[in-house]
């Protein structure tokens, strides 16, 4: 039996995975054009404007507003939705903190609900059960690029007259029933931070088909201005969330590869589904026929240590990394973050809401716990490899399984 790499054996993975981020002459030329043009600012520029239009069109959306990052995209969207003090917004408990912190930034309460055990996306039934008279919106997170159940979420939102916002920070190019995610509700938000499937180091986008929402979101992101109006007219409260021309130029180039890269990540994801389903103790994040494309920000699987001699997830991940398979950490449940356990989040709230009991914070959230401590996330660059690369990922896991006792 070959020795585990963590104990000095040869790694299962020999050929390196594609290195992220990927760039070529397209990015170089785009940056040079901005440099030479001396138009480095978005307002008179053409690159960020073109990027907004192309990214929105790619996602079958009427409008796109480029912003500084994915957190700000959520803040701008929530402002355009009119979310404010006293409001409640239902948020999955398994996500990056930004999904909830943007709600707090608006002065509203993020009401955390558990995710589904198989998809790690918000459970629509629990979301419905959490609705109160103060609920204004639900945020769906497409975890790892896998769309949340948009059939059920749109039905719940419609039934209760709530807004649905898609946090699509992981889901560039993902599809549900053949339609790109991001406009199933009032809008969608994206991140172009370094680890995402297209990047300028930082960056974000809000997309929508709703003209009123778009008008407010655009004004919010540009100091309260409205397009075509005098520069020093400020119509609503706003701030400066504008993306620079440098980033717009790089992202236009990145967008030119997105479709082909997403197709590859999706195909490799489904191949991994087949390969890993055969390994005892490994259960891939669920996929179903309604998901016509998974943008695959990560490849997520559940790890059952009982099939690996009781070796805990952390040790398994160390062994997997040593075999040459890159991973990234899952999110801890939000209710266990200091900002919630210490009560610091209450500083963002006002009136009766600030002093209320928020009993949901005492829930057990079994599936968010499962996501946090029992899943393994393979980074998206690995999914840009070929079929042999996917087989080597499976081989590495099988190898660890066969040698699991050595890890105890
Ligand atoms: C689900 C989710 N929402 C929002 C964000 C925030 O994006 P950014 O880091 O660009 O602010 C992230 C970033 O990782 C994320 O994973």
Structural commentary:
By secondary structure, this protein is α/β, with parallel strands linked by helices. The protein has a domain at 25-254: Aspartate Aminotransferase, domain 2 (3-Layer(aba) Sandwich). The chain has 13 helices and 13 strands. It has a seven-stranded mixed sheet with strand order 1-9-8-5-4-2-3, sandwiched between helices. A four-stranded antiparallel sheet has the order 10-11-13-12. Helix 6 links the parallel strand 4 (135-141) and strand 5 (163-167). Helix 1 runs antiparallel to helix 8 (245-277) and helix 8 (245-277) packs across helix 13 (387-402). The two termini are 17 Å apart. The relative contact order is 0.18. The mean pLDDT is 98. Bound molecules: pyridoxal-5'-phosphate. Pyridoxal-5'-phosphate (PLP) binds at residues 69-71, 95-96, 98-99, 141, 167, 169-170, 191, 193, 204. The site of pyridoxal-5'-phosphate has 14 residues, from helix 3 and helix 4.
């Amino acid at each position: 039996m070959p020795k585990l790499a963590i104990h000095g054996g040869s790694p299962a993975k020999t050929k390196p995975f594609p290195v992220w981020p990927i760039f070529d002459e397209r990015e170089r030329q785009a940056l040079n054009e901005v440099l030479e043009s001396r138009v480095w600012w978005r307002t008179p520029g053409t690159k960020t404007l073109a990027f907004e239009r192309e990214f929105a069109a790619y996602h079958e959306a009427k409008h796109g507003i480029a912003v500084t990052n994915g957190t700000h995209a959520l803040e701008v969207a929530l402002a355009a939705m009119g979310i404010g003090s006293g409001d409640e917004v239902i948020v999955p408990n398994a996500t990056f903190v930004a999904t909830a912190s943007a709600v707090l930034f608006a002065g509203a309460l993020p009401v955390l609900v558990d995710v589904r055990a198989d998809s790690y996306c918000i459970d629509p039934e629990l979301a419905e059960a959490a609705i109160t008279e103060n609920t204004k919106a639900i945020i769906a997170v497409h975890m790892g690029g896998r769309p949340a159940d948009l059939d059920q979420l749109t039905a719940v939102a419609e039934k209760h007259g709530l807004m649905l916002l898609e946090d699509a920070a992981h889901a560039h190019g993902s599809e549900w029933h053949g339609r790109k995610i991001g406009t199933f509700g009032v809008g969608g938000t994206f991140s172009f931070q370094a680890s995402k499937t297209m990047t300028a180091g930082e960056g974000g986008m809000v997309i929508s088909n709703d003209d009123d929402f778009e008008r407010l979101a655009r004004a919010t992101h540009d100091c309260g201005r409205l397009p075509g109006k005098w520069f020093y007219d400020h119509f609503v409260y706003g701030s400066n969330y504008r993306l620079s021309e440098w980033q717009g130029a790089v992202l236009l180039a990145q967008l030119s590869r997105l479709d082909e890269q997403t197709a590859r990540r999706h195909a490799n994801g489904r191949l991994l589904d087949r390969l890993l389903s055969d390994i005892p103790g490994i259960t891939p994040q669920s996929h179903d026929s309604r998901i016509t494309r998974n943008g695959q920000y990560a490849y997520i699987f559940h790890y059952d240590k009982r099939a690996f001699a009781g070796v805990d997830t952390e040790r398994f991940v160390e062994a997997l990394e040593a075999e040459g398979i890159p991973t990234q950490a899952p999110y801890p449940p939000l209710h266990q973050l200091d900002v919630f356990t210490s009560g610091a989040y209450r500083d963002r709230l006002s009136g009766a809401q600030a002093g209320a009991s928020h009993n949901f914070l005492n829930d057990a959230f079994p599936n968010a716990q499962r996501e946090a401590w029992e899943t393994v996330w393979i980074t998206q660059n690995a999914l840009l490899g070929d079929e042999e690369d996917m087989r080597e990922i499976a081989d590495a896991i099988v190898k660890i399984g066969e040698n699991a006792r050595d890890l105890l």
